[in-house]
Amino acid sequence: MDVLVENLGLYWRGVLTTLQISLYSGIGALVLGTIMAGFRVSPVPPLRAVGAGWVTAVRNTPLSVVLFMIAFGLPEIAINAPFFWFGVTGLALYTSAFVCEALRSGINSVSTGQAEAARAIGLTFGQTLGEVVLPQAFRTVVPPLGNVFIAMIKNSAIVGAVGVGGDLYSVGVQLTGSLGEAAIPVLIGVALGYLVLTIPAGLLLGYLERKVAIAR
Amino acid sequence: MSALYDVPGPRARRRTMIGTIVAAVGLLAIAVVVVQRLAAQGQFTAEKWGPLFDPTDEAMPQVWSLLIGLGLRNTLSAASLAVVASLVLGTLIAVTRLVSAPWYRWLVVGVVELLRGLPVVVLIFFAARVLPEIGVELPGAGREVNTLFYLVIGLTLYNMVIIAEIIRAGVNSLPRGQAEAASAIGLTRWQGLRLILLPQAFRTMLPALISQLVVILKDTALGFIISYPELLRESQIIVQTTKNPLQMYFVVAVIFILINYSLGKLAEYVERRLSRARKVPAAAAPPDLVEAGRANAGN
Question: Is B236 in Cβ contact with A62 (below 8 Å)?
Fold first, then answer.
């Protein structure tokens, strides 16, 4: 167990790097996913096709393949960036497909009657969306969206495995590999690191779910 | 029609038409820029694509035999072993959690939460590091079989608890009367589960279970971290000689998309068939099982 205490600093930096990857990717995924969800519910057929194609392609590709394409493919067409940003981009692109689906199912879960009633009493499109549809969609979206982001924190380990150093996973590889520590105590440290991130996130999500739950 | 729009009138139809044209032109422009960029960087040359699609290229037969004959075969065998193991152990965990007395249920819940909170790649990596250290190795088996063994263990550890949760949700979604009737005719809790509840739960949750297969298949592409010769790892090795990473990983992605898309369609088909066949009121079953399965994945 000494390995845990001695390398506390290394673990701590690992947690921070994992958080950093997750934060940047999360913002990117939220922006791109919202745009794609907008495409998918828009009345314009080509945009709908782009949204649907994006979701189908990305959701069915393993994250490791997405990351390989970006990290080893983009330099081929003279797009160069630090590996960290390749990793963040890959994770953001991948997660955006799941964000898009969560948002879309939320919008679709609002029954047609709600929007019809809003239009019937004379609300404009903006009012219908802002006052009636989105507040209801938001409640349905919280649980799946939260799960997507928790899964994203875990997926950041794959970003580490593809070659972005310094995150929690890479700390585990480094300690058991080049530093030659026994695997079991190192594993306990890495596991604790991830649980410190995912369990509070899960509890927060549970709290939010209860808070926005629809009382019927 | 979604909740957002009314049936379009003449003006809305005209606007949609204009939007369609603008969007199509914009998308076309983006496509042209991308293609130009790729062409300018020499990504459409025979040198890059030849090893994959040119029958006169002497490398092609070897590339495909490594990709499909070795890589895809290994991917599929790892995935199917992990699926079978996860289903068996997942069912066991679900049953244990459902019939267990409170004093040891917290243990099952703890294990489930622990494994669910860890990235699957961490589980695979440490299966390959910890198991040999404590002497768990297949005796007499080569390195390749042992990495397969570790990959399957890593995948199973994660997916069995997800499957256990899917099955538990299925049992809990059944009408209470089912369990009550089972105990009324004198079945024990375990008999009731085995004969009455589990068969129904499997049926309701079949679409979610199939969706989980997609997740397992995708996760086998993590075998490269322990050098298991699956599809991605093989393509990684081939790229070292053919020097065409963009094309190679594109083809690998397409292979995964084709397989997973078909599995996804199968899940939707099964869900449609089940919802038509079921006479139980819709309220008894969670509305969107396929989506539920995918949402818990997020990967």
Answer: no
